[in-house]
């Protein structure tokens, strides 16, 4: 089913516009909330992924977080410069770079769950439980396409 046509498409009423606006609002609010930890929302995703073992290489992180490899390298450079992670070559395959949080990186990652939920809950305060579940379901369906 086509939901847009050349004649009915309006940028500010499109799904892409609303998704981008919502993303930008959440990133801006999350960046402000994480300022005291000296990290950004994008850096938060990397730290949490490494902390939980969800991803351990730049390639895995790029796929998981949908960040192109060039930007991923720049973000990892910043995190390494801040002393939050280290990079090392794989012993089995020298082409693979393994990432590991430092003690400081673990400390920062451990503080994120005290901050991030508050930002998201503030944005979702007017959603009922069923609306929240429906939003998650629809975003998952949209993202799977």
Automatic annotation (TrEMBL):
Residue ranges constituting the HTH marR-type domain according to the UniProt record: 1-144
Highest taxon listed in the record's lineage: Bacteria
SUPFAM superfamilies: Winged helix' DNA-binding domain
InterPro entries noted in UniProt: HTH_MarR-typ, WH-like_DNA-bd_sf, WH_DNA-bd_sf
UniProtKB keywords: DNA-binding, Transcription, Transcription regulation
GO MF terms, alphabetically ordered: DNA binding; DNA-binding transcription factor activity
Pfam entry (one): MarR
Name used for this protein in its record: Transcriptional regulator, MarR family
Organism of origin: Cupriavidus basilensis
């Amino acid at each position: 089913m086509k939901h847009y046509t050349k004649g009915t498409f309006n940028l500010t009423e499109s799904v892409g516009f609303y998704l981008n606006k919502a993303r930008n609002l959440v990133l801006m609010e999350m960046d402000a909330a994480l300022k005291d930890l000296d990290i950004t929302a994008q850096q938060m995703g990397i730290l949490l992924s490494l902390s939980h073992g969800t991803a351990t290489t730049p390639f895995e992180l790029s796929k998981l977080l949908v960040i192109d490899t060039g930007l991923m390298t720049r973000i990892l450079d910043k995190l390494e410069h801040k002393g939050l992670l280290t990079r090392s070559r794989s012993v089995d395959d020298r082409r693979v770079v393994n990432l590991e949080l430092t003690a400081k990186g673990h400390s920062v990652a451990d503080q994120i769950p005290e901050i991030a939920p508050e930002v998201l809950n503030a944005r979702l305060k007017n959603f009922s439980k069923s609306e929240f579940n429906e939003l998650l379901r629809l975003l998952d369906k949209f993202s799977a396409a």
